[in-house]
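Appendix B. One record, verbatim.
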Amino acid sequence: MRSNTRSADMRSKDQRQRPETMRTVSVSDFEGLAPHLAAWDDLAWHAPQRIPNLLPAWIDAYLRHRLGPNESWICCFAYLGDRLVGALPLVVTPHPVFGRARPVLYTPYDALTPSGDIVLSADHATLALNALLGEVRRQLPHHLGVDFKAVRQSSALWDALQSGVDGYVLREGFCPKYSSLAVDGDAEAYFAELKKLRSNLRRFRKKLDGRGTVTVELLRGEDATEAFLPEFIALEASGWKGRNGTSIADNPRVVAFYETLVTNFARQGRWEWHTIRVDGRLIAAQMGARCGSGLMLPKYSFDEDFAEFRPGSLLTGEVLRDAFARGEIDEVNPMSDGEAHRTWHMQPEGYLNAHLVRRGPVAAVLQLPRIEAWSFYQNVVRPRIPPGLKAAYQKFRRRGERKPRRAATSRLSTNDAA
């Protein structure tokens, strides 16, 4: 008996010392995703980026409602033993000339999903990324490359890309800076630094109080459900986006995306609604999505009849003050960058666009020249374009648009309704 026990102990010790093996799994249907969702959600929730776009609840809404014509998707997972160390959702898009025979891949990213970052375990990021890309090459052997848009500087992906990726040439490009605000300090000290803005907010609130009973609601947890979404959509459609035909309500696919997104997050208690009402009338509303200790503000809208009172600025002030008081939140991130963010003393942060081009003659001919030209424009040409010329171009693009009435374009607003 002693001999058998000793042998069992030795086998157990050998198993503990044996290095865990990396394995990869690929799925391309929602049923196949189900066994991986809990581990993916946990890895993304605790990732340093704190961006809700990383969470499977967001990716689910994207894959269901945001794919273009002839696009499909695949999601690869890397496990070290039983531990998930990387998740790579990819959209498979046809090459503009050679179609699906030579597809190009990109992580979910568009105007409604402002980061194409992915989640990797920090202690095995390079190993996980190479394993994931190896799986991609096995599943899609003729793809020309993989694009990652707006990778946050705190992302483990950034470090993994810099460490080198087997089988690909890396090209980096300019990415618009997003701004965020740390809210783990002293709220009174922060608002004291706002100076003129702080006094303006008091003045606007006093004027608004003169219009009726003002109610501010910051809903979260079980109080923030998908039931409010139609009211938010109606508020946005009543303003300049509705007049321009670019509101959520004008695009059934966008409506479906937000219905799925809000439902997914609300079921996990990670969605928020921020509102201001005057005598029960909704005059400002904002979405909020949680990821770890971060609060993202994806979209905002207001009633233009109350624009002179700067309802967006008033709502932002309420949200930020509340965020400072919440121990579980240390960052507010609108995932955009504008003049208003400077007003609120939000800090710009670097993001990276990364393009991986397959090594080999085919990709060198079909994909690399396009990426090289794009990279040259973004890194060399674009930074040298005079600001006045950029402003003139933006004005030309927006010709014919019917803008917000009165003070709706105030610099004090956190976001437009885009």
